[in-house]
Write a structure and sequence with these properties.
Blueprint (H helix, E strand, L loop, with lengths): L2 E5 L3 E2 L5 E8 L6 E8 L7 E8 L2 E4 L7 E6 L4 E6 L8 E9 L7 E2 L3 E5 L2
């Protein structure tokens, strides 16, 4: 059974930093591209903010580039998202997701972790 379990979300103030973690089990981690998505509110579009193919190949959306950093530990089967210089508009539920290399769509999803940037 594939499981993705996010943690690390909490209430923070603008300018703060936070690290989200996503522990993965039930799949061959090295064969999967890992992504972090966020959804500001129910019914709003879920946005891909970062993805990691390997430590040399990453993707960031324009809204988080230069502030967020994605990384992965293939031994621990964990993917991280470091969030720096947080802004109120970063408030969202953050989801970890996995897709098999070469596939277009993300297949496996975590339950999400809430980040609130409170002024």
């Amino acid at each position: 059974q594939v499981q993705l379990v996010e943690s690390g979300g909490r209430l923070v103030q603008p300018g703060d930093s936070l690290r989200l973690s996503c522990a993965v089990s039930g799949l061959t981690f090295g064969n999967y591209v890992m992504g972090w998505f966020r959804q500001p509110a129910p019914g709003k579009e879920r946005e891909l903010v970062a993805a990691i193919y390997n430590r040399f190949s990453t993707y960031y959306s324009d809204s988080v580039k230069d502030r967020f950093t994605i990384s992965r530990d293939d031994i621990k089967k964990t993917v991280y998202l470091q969030l720096n210089a947080l802004k109120p508009e970063d408030t969202a539920v953050y989801y970890c997701a996995a897709k098999f290399r070469g596939n277009q769509n993300y297949t496996y999803w975590g339950q999400g972790t809430q980040v609130i940037v409170f002024v």
